[in-house]
Every structure is written in structure tokens, then in C-alpha cells.
Amino acid sequence: MNIAEKIYLQTIAYSVDSIGQRKPTISETAVFALVESVGMNEFFQAGEMGLKPDLKFVVRLMEYSGEANLRYGTEIYSIYRTYRRKDGRVELYTQKRVGDAPYIPPAPPVVTT
Length: 113
Hints:
Elements lengths: L4 E12 L5 E16 L2 H9 L6 E6 L8 E4 L2 E10 L4 E8 L17
Antiparallel strand pairs: 1-2, 1-4, 2-3, 3-6, 4-5, 5-6
């Protein structure tokens, strides 16, 4: 029997401070997901690319918007691969973040006119 557990998808927004530095702000959206271990094939194939896969989270497709990180309990996970299923769900393949700070992708360039 599969039981959905609460996870938090993390969205990163950037603001510019008074001296022009970009500062990230992380917001979280709570969703329910099925939590599973990654399969043996996924583990070895990702390991060949230097990744350390940990868990697979299955969420409804309409709830996922390309977020790069998620929080499950007290742990932060990076999403390194997704797989869109035919049943309206998406599989999020993750690896646990190492270090204190979550992964924050580079900010998009500032466009000035």
C-alpha cells in the first residue's frame, strides 16, 4: 500500500538590494507525494554520471513547475531528473544536498534597456 507523504517544492526568486546584489528568496509549496527508493538501474546509471541518487518522489503533474529542490522532513534534495508518466504524474529523481545551504541555481542575467 502506498501512502502519500507531505513534501515541499522549493521555488527561488531573486531580488536586488540597494547596492545591486541579487539575493535569493526561497518559498515552499506543500504537496503530497509517494516516496520510493530509486531502482537499481537508476542508481548505477546516475552513479556513472557522478550523481548519488537517493529517493524518487511521485507527484501530480499539475503540482510540479520545474522546481530544482524539494524538502522532505528536515532534508533538502536536489531534483536531477524528471519522468512524465502517462497517468498524469511526474517522477522526481533526487539526491540529498550536502552542506548547509540548498542548491540555488545561478540567477538569470539582468536585462537593462
